Amino acid sequence: MSNASVSNSASRNATSVERKGDRELVVTRTFDAPVHLVFKAWSTPDLFKSWWVPKSAGMSIVSCEMDIRTGGTYRLVFRHPSFDQPMAFFGTYQDVTPNQRMVWTNEESDQGALTTVTFEERAGKTFVTLHELYPSEAARDEAIVGSAEGLPEQFAQLDELLESQS
């Protein structure tokens, strides 16, 4: 995936996905909702479950545990019909500043990223930056083939959720 900007028909806002350096991935998007609602969608397990997995992936979140505070942990368990066993993703929140920033580790393997999401209020809308720092270029490129390609769809699903919350 090269640097890309993807827009969906339900929103005029595009999702930008860019490689930065050898180990970074940066995704940005403006959401037509105030920052407190966008942060709530990222930090409330029931809301998060409703938009995080791209519908086209055929997966579901069967468990979502999130202790959203600095030093808290998370554990997400996914199921896909073609896999015998569920897949777990887990880590620790390194920094949580409500309505501004969340930083977490991805500890399910030694190839996991450090993820930082920032929320910036801009005239009643929210500009979100998701930044992932991987331990190697290969780990970043593998993630792009996996989850990162689904981010534009995930963010479109977040748009739909935010419209229903407004």
The total beta strand count reads: 9
**What is the CATH C level class, in words?**
Alpha Beta
Mean pLDDT across all amino acids: 89
For the largest beta-sheet, the strand count, sense and barrel status come to: 9 strands, antiparallel
CATH-level-4 superfamily name:
START domain
Structural class: alpha+beta
Sketch the topology as an H/E string, one letter per element: EEEHHEEEEEEHH
Low-confidence stretches: 1-11
Apparent shape: globular
- Beta-strand percentage range: 35-45%
CATH topology: Alpha-D-Glucose-1,6-Bisphosphate, Chain A, domain 4
Query: What count of domains describes the coordinates?
Result: 1
Residue share in helices? 10-25%
The rounded distance between the terminal residues' Cα atoms is 33 Å
Oligomer: single chain
CATH architecture annotation: 2-Layer Sandwich
Output the number of helix runs. 4
How much is the radius of gyration in Å?
15 Å
User: Strand order, biggest sheet?
Assistant: 1-2-3-9-8-7-6-5-4
Tell me what the structure shows:
The chain is an alpha+beta fold and 166 residues long. It has a single domain, classed as Alpha-D-Glucose-1,6-Bisphosphate, Chain A, domain 4 (2-Layer Sandwich). The protein is 24% helix and 40% strand. The chain has 4 helices and 9 strands. It has helices at 35-43, 45-51, 137-145, 151-165, and strands at residues 4-7, 14-20, 24-31, 60-66, 73-79, 87-97, 101-105, 114-122, 125-133. It has a 9-stranded antiparallel β-sheet with strand order 1-2-3-9-8-7-6-5-4, with helices on one face. A hairpin with a 6-residue loop joins β4 and β5. The longest helix is centred in the C-terminal third of the chain and has 15 residues, at 151-165. It is globular. It starts with a strand and ends with a helix. The model is unreliable at 1-11 (pLDDT under 50).
